[in-house]
Amino acid sequence: MLMGGYLLVMGLSCLTFVAGAFAIIAIRSRRSYWTTIKTCQPLLMVAITTRSSVASLPWVINLLGERLRFSLVVVELLVPLQAALLRTGPALLYTSGALFIAQLYGHQLAVPDLVLVGIISALLALTTGGMGSLLILSQMSIVCGYLKLPFEAAFVLFVAVDAAVDTFITLASVCTVAASTAMIAPSHREAAQPETVSEQLEAEPAR
Predict the structure, then answer these.
(1) 195 found inside a domain
(2) Mean pLDDT of all residues in the chain?
(3) Crossing angle, helix 2-29 and helix 162-184, to 10 degrees?
């Protein structure tokens, strides 16, 4: 029951990130929200089945460049870069895990402690590129060390639900990368507008 509550929190947090990412992609691609969800279904299935952000990157590029018609050159440049910098899933794991352990042992966290957890989690998440799920999980001990929380006993509980948690953090990371790339990369409509304006200016007779 205790870990069920933790999984519920992780699931709701992941759902929030995914829903926000879909909203950004829908606005940038000028499609309806439901159409965007249907278009992103292959990417979601790959992220769920592989539980690997690296394996999902080609599908992110295919989604944005081929299906949603964003500039393919910009998408191919930004997606690997954003995947290395925007480690949303591990940051979410470290934050929620530290709060869970603190609540488990009845350790009250003040506002400075919460700020410290957020900063350490964001910085520590940057180092998780290419790591396996258990190695990512083991680094939570660094966050707990700053808060003087016992991590070794709780580690077994996190390992028991690692498969579900790894799916959540992969979905959060992949959808965040897709949304942030869609915010920056120009769509085919935006790329065509400057060409149309320049053609109109060239077509006007000189006075």
Answers:
(1) no
(2) 85
(3) 20
